[in-house]
């Protein structure tokens, strides 16, 4: 997808609907395009389903398609500017739906750009559209995407990833981020900026997906001594977990402990301790109003500045900014 900010022609968008699709995966991007039309964009949107029948989305709400894939007008290769493919909670099932995956292949062959929302990346993967490309999906499913489609390079932290004429996005709200990027490409930054402002969303959100995810603590280590050390660090992240003290507790040499961490976790002991401490701080930021200095002490950081540096490096935001964004909506309903 190459930038065409000077182009002002009408753009045709096709959105694929199917039973079990997440409603917001469709309505988020489509509302963004409709809002962009109020500020000078020119999008024509067609909602299609594999057979033209209405679909029942994951919420139970029905959605009426404009037509079937086979009845879609055009006929020339790449007669659509954008194809939008939503995801849904039943992606493990729908990726085996031959008719649906066939529809993805047919529509993608006629589209200048293919954009998936959230778990829609699995449909693109099943259609072979992600082979040899970088891609992303919701942080909960990045491991599964990489395992199911080993020819795909999965970026687990990106809000959306562009690779050639394929764009994949993370969770449902990241579909709005992706769509704003398309609007900017098609009609310029001012139209995209006005659209974002009207929708009260970021033009470009700070940080990546990792700020929303919970770090998976490696509870399946095979070596009993290593499991004991991992549990000890999680139970008391503020303790002085030096390499020497951890090796002594595990009853192994420092060299052997380093090897265990590398082989089973692909981490150094120091990096594991830091991740646990960051996770501990993040959890407290989400649920309490303690001073940052108190949280830093309880999480095992020597100072608020040490916490700030580690937190910013991990999540791209400061602890204070994270608390403001995720601790409360600051809305009080009486």
Automatic annotation (TrEMBL):
Keywords: DNA-binding, Transcription, Transcription regulation
Keyword DNA-binding: yes
Domain (HTH araC/xylS-type) ranges: 227-325
Listed InterPro entries: Class_I_gatase-like, DJ-1/PfpI, Homeodomain-like_sf, HTH_AraC, HTH_AraC-typ_CS, INH-QAR
Gene3D superfamilies: 3.40.50.880, Homeodomain-like (1.10.10.60)
Pfam families named in the record: DJ-1_PfpI, HTH_18
SUPFAM superfamilies: Class I glutamine amidotransferase-like, Homeodomain-like
Name of this chain's protein: GlxA family transcriptional regulator
Biological classification of the source: Bacteria, Bacillati, Actinomycetota, Actinomycetes, Pseudonocardiales
């Amino acid at each position: 997808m190459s930038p065409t900010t000077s182009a002002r022609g009408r753009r045709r968008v096709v959105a694929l609907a199917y039973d079990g699709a997440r409603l917001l995966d469709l309505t988020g991007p489509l509302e963004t395009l409709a809002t962009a039309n109020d500020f000078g964009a020119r999008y024509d949107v067609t909602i299609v389903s594999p057979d033209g029948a209405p679909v029942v989305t994951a919420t139970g709400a029905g959605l009426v398609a404009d037509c079937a894939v086979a009845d879609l007008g055009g006929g020339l290769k790449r007669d659509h500017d954008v194809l939008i493919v939503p995801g849904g909670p039943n992606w493990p099932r729908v990726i085996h739906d031959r008719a649906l995956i066939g529809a993805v292949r047919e529509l993608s062959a006629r589209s200048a750009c293919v954009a998936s929302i959230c778990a829609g990346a699995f449909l693109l993967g099943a259609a072979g559209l992600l082979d040899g490309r970088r891609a992303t999906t919701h942080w909960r499913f990045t491991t599964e995407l990489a395992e199911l489609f080993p020819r795909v390079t999965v970026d687990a932290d990106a809000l959306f990833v562009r690779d050639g004429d394929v764009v994949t996005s993370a969770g449902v709200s990241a579909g709005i981020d992706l769509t704003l990027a398309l609007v900017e490409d098609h009609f310029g930054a001012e139209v995209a900026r006005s659209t974002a402002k009207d929708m009260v969303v970021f033009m470009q959100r700070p940080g990546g997906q990792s700020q929303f995810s919970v770090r998976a603590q490696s509870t399946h280590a095979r070596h009993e001594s290593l499991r004991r050390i991992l549990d000890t660090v999680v139970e008391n992240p503020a303790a002085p977990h030096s390499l020497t003290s951890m090796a002594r507790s595990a009853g192994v040499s420092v060299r052997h402990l380093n090897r265990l961490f590398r082989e089973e976790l692909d981490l150094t002991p120091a990096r594991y301790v830091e991740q646990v401490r960051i996770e501990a701080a993040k959890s407290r930021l989400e649920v309490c109003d303690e001073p940052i200095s108190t949280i830093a002490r309880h999480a095992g950081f020597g100072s608020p500045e040490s916490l700030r540096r580690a937190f910013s490096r991990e999540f791209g935001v400061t602890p204070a900014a994270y608390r403001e964004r995720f601790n409360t909506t600051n809305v009080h309903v009486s």
